[in-house]
Amino acid sequence: MSGDSQWRDALDRGIAQLASAGMPDERIGEPQRDRLIQLVALLAKWNKVYNLTAVRDPRQMIDRHLLDSLVMSRWLPELASTDSSLFDVMDVGTGAGLPVLPLAVIRPDLRFLSVESNGKKTRFQQQAILELGLANVTVRNERIENVNNQAQLVLSRAFTAPVDFLRIARKLCAPEGTVAVMLGRAERLPDTLSPHYELRELVEVEVPGTDSARHVALCQRQYG
Length: 224
Hints:
- This protein is α/β, with parallel strands linked by helices and 224 residues long.
- It has helices spanning 3-20, 30-50, 58-70, 100-106, 119-132, 162-169, and strands spanning 86-92, 112-115, 137-140, 150-156, 173-183, 197-205, 214-221.
């Protein structure tokens, strides 16, 4: 079996596994899966020169990057915002575009904002957007403190500690929008959230091909 075939087989099996755990997979058709494999190939190519990620093996990238990103698809907004000044999803500290690029591939109906301060990583994202034909992603090479946009959903894969992320995300999240906090084994939410948030859901997630503990906390931003 060729490398591309192995990657595709791993992706298909992983998506089926995620779907059985509640991830909506009806939007991940053949064209979307092809683009996801193309994204992995591009990331592996750039990674040889620019050191974008510590994961070197493209097969491992399927599990640790693509599927780990697609886990978040179950909490994406159902519909795009009718407010043209509001993004649907903002990914903070995206690195090489994870999870924002895989999510944008499977939800072309939503508008995504990727915020990353590292120039070589945003250059990779721009090239990936060009090669994958993604028209729904805006990339901002900025420190998050300089960003004034807002989104229905604000998330981050590995930006900072949960309590700090919630503080930073407050101004970025539209009132009554959601901040998704991705928690690892050693992390936890503060015992008491600030009055600016209400914990809506705390979910344990399993990423196919990995044995790392992961939880996602959905925190709804309150008015004020």
